[in-house]
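Onboarding guide, step 5: your first structure request.
Type a short instruction followed by the sequence, for example:

Predict the 3D structure of this protein.
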Amino acid sequence: MKEIRQEFLTGERALFQGENLRIVDTIFDDGESPLKESRNIELIGSMFKWKYPLWYSKDITLKNCSIFEMGRAGIWYTDRISVEDTVIEAPKNFRRCRDVKLRNVNFVNAAETLWSCDGVELDQVTARGDYFAMNSQNLTLRDFTLAGNYSFDGVKNMELHHARLLSKDAFWNSENVTVYDSFISGEYLGWNARNLTLVNCTIESLQGMCYIDNLVMKNCKLINTTLAFEYSTVEAEITSRVDSVFNPAGGRICAESIGELILERDKINPEKTRIVCKNVLKKAV
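The system replies with structure tokens like these:
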């Protein structure tokens, strides 16, 4: 493997179609697509300061690297890429990539990041930005923190462990998503999802978990959560008070207490939902 060390590279396609390279402490400055169509590249302590650094590449590793703000749309159509201990300041990274592994990565501006990717593993990742991971599939995330709305829209086959999401409209149009041991705060959580499972989670939401086909909640807390479950089929075990439940389509809801239970017979059939709760403060049927 050829080594490139402490270089300052400029100009378009500086290492176009590079193969079998170990690139150490090198700066890619002004110049688009420096490593386009590259193969078997190891980057250590290097920096990308301009657009489109890794497109159509395969078998790439980055360790202790930096992608600056103008390195936007940096990694697209790339397969088998591993990134560790790296700061990514640029938006719109990772588009239509396969087999992506990220560990200890900080996305300073994660707007429109991880779109339409397949086979994604995230461990100790922090991100800030809207529309994170839209239409991606086969994802596993652990110790993940996100501040950004409209996350995980249209994702399929995802496991999320020990996460903290400050995210309005999370999980819209998703399918086969399971979330474990996490905190989620955001309005309109999970609308139009199929097979959404929440285990040992704490949730704060306005009109959350509505229009869901097969919502499962196990040992969850709902804090300041109102107008929940509208038109959803639900199997819910809630260990706290729910401020209000509104027109569930069917299933079973167990809760410590319910502030207001609204079951409008002209909208839904109340008999299709079993409410297991000793303390319903107000009921409208």
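Each response can be followed by summary notes, for example: The chain has three domains: 1-109, 111-167, 187-285.
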